[in-house]
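FAQ: What does a ligand-bound record look like?

Like this one, built around iron/sulfur cluster:
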Amino acid sequence: MTTAPKTPRITDIGPPHYQKFLPPLVKKNYGQWKYHEILAPGVLCHVAESGDRLYTVRAATPRLMAVQTLRKFADLADKYCGGHLRFTSRNNIEFLLEDRNNIEPLKCDLAELGFPVGGTGNSLSNIVHTQGWVHCHSAATDASGIVKSVMDALYDRFTHQDLPAKLRIAMACCLNMCGAVHCSDIAILGIHTVPPKIQHATLPKVCEVPTLIASCPTGAIRPATYEGKPSVELIEEQCMFCGNCYTVCPAMPLNDPEHDGLSIWVGGKVSNARSAPKFSKLAVPFLPNHPPRWPEVVDAVVKIVDVYAKNARKYERVGEWIERVGWPRFFQLTGFEFTRYHIDDFKHAGLTYARSAQIKY
Amino acid sequence: MTTAPKTPRITDIGPPHYQKFLPPLVKKNYGQWKYHEILAPGVLCHVAESGDRLYTVRAATPRLMAVQTLRKFADLADKYCGGHLRFTSRNNIEFLLEDRNNIEPLKCDLAELGFPVGGTGNSLSNIVHTQGWVHCHSAATDASGIVKSVMDALYDRFTHQDLPAKLRIAMACCLNMCGAVHCSDIAILGIHTVPPKIQHATLPKVCEVPTLIASCPTGAIRPATYEGKPSVELIEEQCMFCGNCYTVCPAMPLNDPEHDGLSIWVGGKVSNARSAPKFSKLAVPFLPNHPPRWPEVVDAVVKIVDVYAKNARKYERVGEWIERVGWPRFFQLTGFEFTRYHIDDFKHAGLTYARSAQIKY
Amino acid sequence: MPVFECEGRMYEVDEDGFLQEPERWSQDVAKDFAQTEAIADLTDGHWKVINYIRNYYLQFGIAPMVRKLCKETGYKLNEIYQLFPSGPAKGACKLAGLPKPTGCV
Amino acid sequence: MPVFECEGRMYEVDEDGFLQEPERWSQDVAKDFAQTEAIADLTDGHWKVINYIRNYYLQFGIAPMVRKLCKETGYKLNEIYQLFPSGPAKGACKLAGLPKPTGCV
Amino acid sequence: MDDASNGKPKTELLDQLEEGPWPSFVKEIKAASQGSEKATDLLRQLERSYEERKGHWKHGGMVGVLGYGGGVIGRYSDLPEEFPQVAHFHTMRVNHPAGWFYTSDALRTICDIWERHGSGMTNMHGSTGDIILLGTTTDQLEPTFQELAQNGFDLGGSGSAVRTPNCCVGMARCEWACFDTMKLCYDVTQAYQDELHRPAFAYKFKFKFAGCPNDCVASIARADLSVIGTWKDDIQVDDAEVANYAAAGVDIQKEVCDLCPTKTMGWDGKKLSIDNRECVHCMHCINVLPKALRPGKERGAVVLIGAKAPIMQGALLSSVLIPFVPAEELLDTLKELVKRIWDFWDEYGTNRERVGELIQRVGMPAFLDGIGLEPVPEMVAAPRDNPYIFFETKNGGAK
Amino acid sequence: MDDASNGKPKTELLDQLEEGPWPSFVKEIKAASQGSEKATDLLRQLERSYEERKGHWKHGGMVGVLGYGGGVIGRYSDLPEEFPQVAHFHTMRVNHPAGWFYTSDALRTICDIWERHGSGMTNMHGSTGDIILLGTTTDQLEPTFQELAQNGFDLGGSGSAVRTPNCCVGMARCEWACFDTMKLCYDVTQAYQDELHRPAFAYKFKFKFAGCPNDCVASIARADLSVIGTWKDDIQVDDAEVANYAAAGVDIQKEVCDLCPTKTMGWDGKKLSIDNRECVHCMHCINVLPKALRPGKERGAVVLIGAKAPIMQGALLSSVLIPFVPAEELLDTLKELVKRIWDFWDEYGTNRERVGELIQRVGMPAFLDGIGLEPVPEMVAAPRDNPYIFFETKNGGAK
Ligand code: SRM
Ligand code: SRM
Ligand code: SRM
Ligand code: SRM
Ligand code: SF4
Ligand code: SF4
Ligand code: SF4
Ligand code: SF4
Ligand code: SF4
Ligand code: SF4
Ligand code: SF4
Ligand code: SF4
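The answer part, i.e. the structure of the complex:
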């Protein structure tokens, strides 16, 4: 139970000003960078107009981290970077060095601690992911475990820069898609495949029925009375298991160990480089949920990465490669089955049908 | 009033077999053509494996033709082609000659009769069009008159082959778009811009109300009672003047001399050559209905053709050219105003929004 | 508004001869209109079709789709054309007193 | 199911302290719940907000959107936070006896 | 508006459309007026429309010939007193011969029949492909029809029926035809005489046949069932002729290779190489070098479904249904396919719902299930991007 | 499942995730278990989830700190008896410093606070950008919050509020930043403290700032308002450096010119020429030749609107709202713009309708009218292709 505040409370101060945290070299050359080079996988060198050079060493983190580990990073920052570090938009950690000679010792220390250096240039970076069974109520699967399993298998793709282009994998544990699953080169998405089971007894106590009804994208939920109390009914054929009803109403649980699983999506991107940003498209509609190492998921992702690495041209992102060779070729090369589920049948579905006689044989 | 048939009636015989009408040379080389050349605008030469050569002279027709004129064509066919001729899918007429020496005399005769020879290769062909005020109840404008006015202005584009690629113009007098307006390089479309005026008195006598209600793409028509009789009401803000209600119910007229007008569309195509088939997109939302020569429409179309002819690369259809240079450039070059009407707000509207940071300045 | 006259009885019709006063319909009216449709006598078969269309119209406000008409009356489409030479829309619906169908019959 | 006890009165609540028996609500219940929300006394201002939310809920089956709440009660959002330190959703709705809002308050 | 002293109608506005180099439809109507008062009143009423900027035809009209449900578009003037000759002014749609070939005799026969029974005005041809005989009265429909029939012509489609199928000139004159468009068009037309003449569908159904991906009948834009010729094996290349084109000034790299949508051609200044595996059969290279390149020898067609104009959910282009049918199997395949499509459409189509819109509404997967066709990736531009998959729950969830 | 004799929980499945070269989150939870029983129970409950293939968190939770409507995600175990230490296990979202820069001290401060009040587990960072402090009890929320505040940190957003804005590293380390992303991100965050902490909208609202079209924060995919740096004038070219790259083996034609989306570059083996009028500012050429090419000098940003994940009408990418705003005008322009957008959204948005979905529903034209912005062709990929134009009828039809 919350209690009234005693001392004058501090609120609405916002985040600390970033300038407090900038390394001196960054402050000095802020906005005055001239160009950069990648010295080695995970090692960047940014050169300023002033001639100053800033060295960045990027290492992977598991994102889900104990304070013990963060303190180790802080120690490294003290040791090599005057106490400065940053994280990246993909949950990697970056050490910012003034002295080139510190690069190798830092790399050694990181190796010892078990944090691989890499993720720059034409490599696979860290997987953007979500909470999974670690913290979320919606999760159709775990996130961290799959990320770990996939990255174990693709470790060399992180530490080497031998891919055709940058490769971004994302993982989300339900259709809410916290993160960037909808626009990733490869995306792993936890899915439910059976409709929610309505808990009529608790529903009126804990849910706003109109909100619940409005929540269903397909209108599968209709008002109904259950034992005299207002509740809802579900037209099961209209349910595509998005879980939005559960988000607004706890009495609509849809977790189901037997039928929850994973789907794999490919070809999305967000950069505007060369081609416009794109959504990820369905590659594999369903794979079983097999903790602790999800071998089917790992295999499917590795397969895609291998086929891509082998077939794409330099600077071609996954989606650009597939668009060039065509989706039929993608399915041929990966051996994934093309099913009715691949053909869109939601709102704008018709726009995905092939409306030309341009076909490869 | 129909009366009972007297003699044994002939029905369901279908069209005459085409073979009866084929010139001997065509029959002989049917399916054995090797290649073709364009000898001059409007003059094709098809060479068969056998070495035979078939010469085609293509002339424009107004499509709307008196039997008197058709007989003249028949006479020409007798004179030069052993009594054979054909029409094309764009309402041109083609004379099929065995003797190359007949080409020039035939051209002279056609010139005398006032039927220009051309429409082949990288030229503008005849305008595919519709009935207009000549015969249709839905027409927001006339078709033949606009076609005549536009083609008078673009005559040289038909008789010369100096365009970047084939150029196809289509004209339809209402949103039913009989013809190929929705996929033409340039399309002229008659439009209504005020909602139908419900004739409550006659409506119940002549219309099926449920069909009427179902006919409206936006659901603007609702059941209502008018003086005790079943009728409908119209949510005017929801009406976008498509006329589909009128098609199913005479008591919903929407012709309106003041507010009917024309719109111009560009960039459609149907061939699969190079790029996939495309829809025409809105260029000018509204131009007034000014018979007999619709100067505003003629100007707008000529403008587009001129700008296209000047700016497109060889083999680039209008839509391909615009996609290369970008729509902002198209509006700059033509001087057409970009308005709120250009931004789609129907069903799949969102898919036309520019979802990238790729912009030209 | 054109008028169709049959043995002194006057009916308000449209140009195509469809009855414009739906409320006036009766079996006799159907008989009168049969003359315009190259139908000599109205047999049971005719009535089966007319009644089905009429009832459908009264219930749903529209003419039935041809497919449905065939299914429910048990007649094949060519049989319907034998009964009503102008076909289900121009012929049968006219006799059933419906407004001119723009839909599917 | 957790229980909230106030001077001997027992309420079935969820983990977050929202009343699970909507039909039991009364002004007294609101007063009891006020203690959990760092509210000393329920003033007219509190009641204005509680009543508005409660009535809205009874009428529409949902909690009002915050914007609407502010507009209709005349309170700015920061004033609502002054009245209910946990805010409109966690505070005011709880006192009004609503289920935990997943929507917009 | 008043008839002038010379006995000819005064048509000041329309007269302006006699000027200019393009053939004039006004001259045509005037020509027909020589033989037909109907044409004269057409001209007069049209002049009125030009003055008032408004059509003068009443809505609809439902007339026809016995035994047929379509083929005639009824029209009545809304100024019958002023223009009595067009008080009734129905058009007859006459099924054209495939490829629009005629003998002069056949053409004259039609002219003669029409001059006797109608206005003498025609459209050669309507947008669907029919011979359009423009303007006659109800009592002339049956006699015209029977005279036409005696001369081997039949009516075309209208209403919720199969419409007159049409096709490009194909093998009759085009070196690129990958199947016999005229034959298939004729055969299909004959096969569906009943469906063409006796509307029984939810809405219209159009077939169009194009011999190659150039699609000279705009089938992909205008047919519920679009059949577009194509080939499966390698493009036939005549190296010597390629060299000739190059010598004659064609910039092979720029005009051919660079415009290939999949950039699958190479040109080293001497030889054109094609990686046919990446060719999407767009026709561009062949179009530019007709003497040097030709479609492959393993020929057939893509079958696509669902094109239509905007009414009512927006225009559609046809989409791929069968990526390749060998030429010799086309007729049988189509017959079997169309049967299943019509069954499904009959079952699930609503009033005035084209098959393309039905597919949009129920979804391609359900449609494929319904007609018993396996999904293949060639059917889609791309797989779905939304995760809203209707897994089959019959068996309780996925797999 | 049972605790083993060594006092450590038995986690056979999770233990398998300690193997392999990639850093292991299981090791992390175990590390935190040293200092926190919460972490231990987290591990145990997670093992249970792995066994049962099912999460063990109850739905939702609505807890927080006084005066704020968001910033905390409530969580309760559905097996509280078995795992009492995670019976309550709320996360706190802490607003990260722009660009995710830290001093080691600041980091340690956070660690210390969290070790005292919570599980000692963190996410560095959440997908929106926050520091996520993972797992504590309701009574610890307020103390944690105040300790953080005393050290200069504030909570982030949750619920129907502005969410923690984030940005790429921008001018701090990147030569391509076309505006100062970190400053703008900070300024915007400060400007909307109230909207961030006190949910008042129909749904969440996210800002993301990327310094150039590479969009290193995925703003176009994940922000309701995406601000992406760009330039208007010519790309700056250093010819000598281009030559150096070529000499060093970069195939300028193939790797640069051929991949330019508008093919607006020419390479004659010596000099790179750019027709900047056709450049769409995609960054590709600059990315490949960072030492030789640079964005122009007239810098600013494109403002785009409406990205979101699929719920509920399908995912959206942001779409162009203002094609170019000069860098120095960005803050003011955004403030004015956002005010009008929020007013419109407040007025017309329904419950849980993101601004992107609102625009889809009412249409971009109506939205533009509502916020008073003129339509420009840069907003669309293409103009409409359907003729269903809602002409304004107030004045009785078009013009
Ligand atoms: C550090 C970081 C920004 C930050 O504020 O944290 C960053 C930093 C740089 N990015 Fe990035 N990008 C960062 C996330 C992204 C993202 C966002 C994401 O992945 O979620 C994207 C969009 C990805 C997408 O399209 O799906 C992104 C797309 C790019 C691109 C365009 C790549 C492409 O060809 O599509 C470049 C250009 C390049 O690499 O040549 C780029 C280039 C760069 C440069 C070279 C910019 C510079 O001159 O400093 C930096 C080093 C890149 C490298 O790793 O090789 N950065 N970059 C992010 C590092 C994430 C990580 O740990 O891996
Ligand atoms: C913690 C975080 C995932 C993570 O592991 O990083 C997260 C976690 C949740 N998200 Fe999210 N979202 C998180 C970033 C995102 C993002 C990415 C972003 O912001 O860049 C997205 C996609 C972008 C977007 O906003 O559309 C995202 C889209 C959603 C959605 C779908 C929203 C939509 O309009 O489609 C929901 C559902 C909802 O709001 O009810 C959602 C709902 C949720 C909830 C609150 C679950 C729920 O049903 O209410 C999750 C709480 C999990 C937990 O137990 O802590 N979360 N969520 C991210 C926030 C951390 C942070 O503050 O830094
Ligand atoms: C006669 C006709 C077929 C018929 O059965 O009637 C025909 C005949 C030929 N077409 Fe066509 N096309 C005919 C309508 C079309 C149409 C349909 C239409 O316009 O409504 C198209 C699709 C147009 C579109 O995309 O909007 C069409 C797209 C083509 C193309 C592809 C052009 C492109 O680059 O997009 C070619 C190839 C070429 O010209 O190089 C072509 C090529 C040809 C060739 C060269 C084929 C051949 O080898 O014989 C013929 C002479 C073409 C010429 O005029 O230069 N034909 N052609 C049609 C003449 C119409 C007319 O009178 O103008
Ligand atoms: C005569 C013709 C136009 C012409 O001048 O050539 C024509 C004329 C009419 N069309 Fe059409 N359509 C004609 C070809 C087309 C085409 C083109 C085609 O078939 O290739 C289309 C577009 C393709 C398509 O089918 O989608 C076409 C799409 C329509 C539509 C919209 C259908 C849709 O699904 O969107 C309607 C409205 C309707 O069916 O109720 C329509 C309706 C009509 C009606 C019957 C008007 C009506 O409201 O019922 C017109 C009668 C005019 C008259 O007074 O004679 N007409 N109509 C064409 C038929 C001639 C022929 O048989 O050869
Ligand atoms: S993706 Fe779904 S399950 Fe995963 S954290 Fe987000 S809301 Fe929770
Ligand atoms: S899971 Fe999604 S589709 Fe199914 S009922 Fe719930 S909201 Fe509707
Ligand atoms: S386009 Fe419209 S007005 Fe013109 S003929 Fe077709 S239906 Fe009639
Ligand atoms: S014109 Fe079209 S939009 Fe308007 S009421 Fe009629 S059917 Fe509806
Ligand atoms: S579609 Fe192909 S085969 Fe038919 S005429 Fe045109 S180019 Fe020849
Ligand atoms: S047919 Fe088209 S796709 Fe195939 S090689 Fe020629 S140009 Fe390329
Ligand atoms: S978005 Fe552009 S400016 Fe920002 S870090 Fe990435 S490359 Fe640099
Ligand atoms: S930035 Fe992109 S569009 Fe502009 S010149 Fe470079 S590659 Fe081409």
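Follow-up question: can I read anything off the structure? Yes, for example: The radius of gyration of chain C is 13 Å.
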